Amino acid sequence: MPRPTKCRRVQYPPDYLTFKPAGVPARQLHEIELTLDEFEAIRLADLEELYHEEAARKMNVSRQTFGNILSSAHKKIADMLVHGKALSLQGGNISLKNERLFLCKDCNNRWSEPLGTGRPRHCQSCRGENISRIK
């Protein structure tokens, strides 16, 4: 009997939950489910370019588990791209960080603030006041 799955930490949920080839109705496509922990592994390894050990720490899993999650995500994304399938982001045994995400509309800087610290008055990057909460 396998061990129970450990809860994986995800920093931010995705902005979009479905992706599909253009020009093909969704009902005609096979759908692949990418779990939110697989999405987070892709974000950390491929977008943030973190080493697996550091990314695993951020997700609260072992380096080997991180590698397994990332490998599964890469295979699903390749299947979607090569075979023209739809991709749905959902599920997974995850916990979200207790942070809020803000966007500066002047310089497009994004940053997070812990819950309970109040709304920031200005952007950390350009010091502009045209900011909004996006998560």
What does this structure look like?
This protein has 135 residues and is α/β, with parallel strands linked by helices. It folds into 2 domains: 8-96, no CATH class; 99-133, no CATH class. It contains 3 helices and 8 strands. The protein has helices at residues 36-47, 52-59, 63-83, and strands at residues 8-10, 18-19, 31-34, 86-89, 94-96, 99-104, 110-114, 131-133. It has a 3-stranded mixed β-sheet. The protein has a 3-stranded antiparallel β-sheet with strand order 7-6-8, with no helix packed on it. Strands 1-5 form a two-stranded parallel ribbon. A hairpin with a 5-residue loop joins strand 6 (99-104) and strand 7. Helix 1 (36-47) runs antiparallel to helix 2 (52-59). The longest helix has 21 residues, at 63-83. The mean pLDDT is 90.
**How much helix, percentage-wise, in residues?**
25-40%
Number of helices: 3
Widest beta sheet: strand line-up: 2-4-3
The low-confidence parts are none
Summarize the structure.
With 135 residues, the protein is α/β, with parallel strands linked by helices. It has helices at residues 36-47, 52-59, 63-83; strands at 8-10, 18-19, 31-34, 86-89, 94-96, 99-104, 110-114, 131-133. It contains three helices and eight strands.
Using brief descriptors, characterize the structure shown.
3-stranded mixed sheet; 30% helix; 3-stranded antiparallel sheet; globular; 2 domains; 135 residues; single chain; 3 helices; alpha/beta
